[in-house]
Automatic annotation (TrEMBL):
Annotated segments matching region Disordered: 37-73
Classification via Gene3D superfamilies: Medium-chain alcohol dehydrogenases, catalytic domain, NAD(P)-binding Rossmann-like Domain
Keyword annotations of the record: Metal-binding, NAD, Oxidoreductase, Zinc
A GO molecular-function descriptor: oxidoreductase activity
Record's protein name: Enoyl reductase (ER) domain-containing protein
Record field: compositional bias (Low complexity): 37-49
SMART domains, per the entry: PKS_ER (SM00829)
Top-rank taxon, per record: Eukaryota
Compositionally biased spans, kind Polar residues: 54-68
Amino acid sequence: MASSSSAILVRRTITHLKNHPPSLSWCLSNHLLLSRNNSQSHNNNNNNNMAVPPQQQAASFSTQQPSNAGGGGGLPSFMRGAVYWEPNKPLTIEEFHMPKPKAGEVLIKTKACGVCHSDLHVLKGEIPFSSPCVIGHEITGEVVEHGPLSDPKIVERLPLGSRVVGAFIMPCGNCSYCSKGHDDLCEAFFAYNRAKGTLYDGETRLFLRSNGKPVFMYSMGGLAEYCVVPANGVSILPKSLPYNESAILGCAVFTAYGAMAHAAQVRPGDSVAVIGTGGVGSSCLQIARAFGASDIIAVDIQDEKLEKAKIFGATHTINSAKEDPVAKIIEITGGKGVDIAVEALGRPQTFSQCTHSVKDGGKAVMIGLAQAGAVGEMDINRLVRRKIQIIGSYGGRARQDLPKLTRLAESGIFNLSHAVSRTYKFEEAGKAFQDLNEGKIVGRAVIEIV
Ligand SMILES: [Zn+2]
Ligand SMILES: [Zn+2]
């Protein structure tokens, strides 16, 4: 049997990036993308104290390397990624040294990355995150390299060339939560990635080509041509599922599944209300239908989204800009309220609507991230006397849930093509987030990275 190190150091030959134009004109392709000069001055002013590995420092002084010199036998030396610098400043597309996976990690050639509100919260400064960073956390792609000394079982499960989908919560596999199967609570993910913008050795895998400076990673930093992901956060994508549509499995559908399967534990015949029918909310409708919910009530302020909600399984729709959603939900359910209400917006007002929509003993599931410091209020006596359950849920459990989600999509029980309403090119990343911010995206948008 071949040693694990010899097996995993093989890199596939990838040629299509070798002839990248040296020009950086892609930065100018829309008004949200700054010129490289702007972004560089940004970067030079940035004080971050992350260590730059020696090999990256050395590489940073060489700008004349042949494009495939550092790829270890086929991969290009450099790649592009979309960088967030500071709140409300445009994304810029920058060149990076080719990221290198470490043990237990895979390098993925990214094919598609979803456009999610969590990224938008970061871009707007509503949720603090280390910067500069590459955003994007909902990806599909192809495995092109394994980290050295990775467990042979990982190589066996994810051979080079595998089509994969990545979950935004990337479990370490070893912490007290992961060891119990609670991947969604992984300590390393929150301590290193969400708190510091790194992977679980405390370091990023992203270094700018221009000066070798480190750039942080929101999850895997998926809005880039390549990304490094802990192998536990990756699952095989069947050939029948297209790269673009399937990207949303890693956050929108993953989050919805976590909420419905683990937090709400939806049973056949349950009544479910979903407040906010964007990418995650509309996925909740589909999952609720898949789990056999009877009454499925969609609440939003846009009629267009509510029309689409019917395709996803909504049996009733409520435009909360025109009528009181709580009163209407109570009316639809014969005066009782729903078994399960899901809040997918992260706002104090909808938090309250969610808790008031559930019946006695019902579950109010909160999945919308809010602006940092936002507080939701609850009538304590109703909570106590009527045994209301308020449950937070951030996402699914990658190792168990991601393979199930792909099967739901493969069988058509979860319809991916209905869920993805729009596709942008990589160079249009800034516009995609602007459109999301302006409420112009119905369902979910995906950025194609080819
Ligand atoms: Zn997301
Ligand atoms: Zn863990």
